[in-house]
Design goal:
Strand content: over 45%
Distance between the termini: 39 Å
Order of helices and strands: EEEEEEEEEEE
Largest sheet: 7 strands, mixed
Number of strands: 11
Shape: globular
């Protein structure tokens, strides 16, 4: 059973960098055909796709967030991370990590989500 768990600060000040880690258990982040994704949901709004790091290490980001986003990984710890720079209160959201399986063309596992609030 694959499990994903987000971790990181729940409160970030404006202009700082939001940093979250997703720890994966039950499967390797280097296994073929999986894309390790960050998604967020601002309060009262729909889900917003942020970006992914693929099993082979390549990354792809939402055009609207690309200039502020970095997704990286630590294969020795089976973790991948999200860094979002220059945050504003509009970045307040529940942040989820999820696994996209290209075989199903769907997300098959999700983390429980973590609330991040941007406020001074």
């Amino acid at each position: 059973q694959v499990q994903l768990q987000e971790s990181g600060p729940g409160l970030v000040k404006p202009s700082q960098t939001l940093s979250l880690t997703c720890t994966v258990s039950g499967g390797s982040i280097t296994t073929n055909a999986y894309y390790w994704t960050w998604i967020r949901q601002p309060p009262g709004k729909g889900m917003e796709w942020i970006g992914y790091i693929a099993y082979h290490g390549s990354t792809y980001y939402s055009p609207s967030l690309k200039s502020r986003t970095l997704i990286s990984r630590d294969t020795s710890k089976n973790q991948f991370t999200l860094q979002l720079s220059s945050v504003t209160p509009e970045d307040t959201a529940v942040y989820y990590c999820a696994r996209w399986y290209s075989g199903y063309e769907a997300y098959d596992y999700w983390g429980q989500g973590t609330q991040v609030t941007v406020s001074s």
